[in-house]
Amino acid sequence: MTDERGEVVLRVVPRPSDINSNGHIFGGWVLSQMDIAGGIVAGRIARGAVATVAIEGMKFISPMLLGDLVSVYAREERRGRTSVAIRIDAVATRGGMQQQVELTQGIFTFVALDETMRPRPLPPSGS
Ligand SMILES: CC(C)(COP(=O)(O)OP(=O)(O)OC[C@H]1O[C@@H](n2cnc3c(N)ncnc32)[C@H](O)[C@@H]1OP(=O)(O)O)[C@@H](O)C(=O)NCCC(=O)NCCS
Prior knowledge:
The protein has one helix at 27-46, and strands spanning 2-3, 6-12, 50-60, 69-79, 83-94, 99-112. The longest helix has 20 residues, at 27-46. The chain is built from one helix and six strands. The chain is of the alpha+beta class.
């Protein structure tokens, strides 16, 4: 599924063990899902191994609740020589009314790696 946020790369449901003492889902849990989704898209663009080098503009917009179905969207934001920035949005589908709630957003930058784990030029886009 694709919209202005990009493609849905993951759909996940948090477990009771992912809850903090406020009854919300740990921020680290959703960050991890975002990193996984971004890594999938970046790895496809890089056609190989990538590593997360930076996260910019990370925003936790609304609390995430047990029972939320979390969709993680990803969209290429910009491409450099060895790095690609992926905009990631996490959105919850909540309750019987299928309400959509914006949870988080951020821009994750991934670097393409060679076999020595050093930066490697990205393949030309569209090739
Ligand atoms: C990723 C890594 C190999 C990059 O090595 P480096 O020596 O910093 O590489 P460079 O300085 O040549 O930068 C490589 C690219 O990253 C970009 N970059 C580096 N730091 C950045 C930052 N803070 N924000 C955005 N982009 C950044 C550079 O602009 C460059 O992109 P470009 O070639 O498209 O212009 C190294 O930092 C590393 O191994 N980091 C740990 C990665 C990791 O363990 N991640 C978590 C688990 S996946």
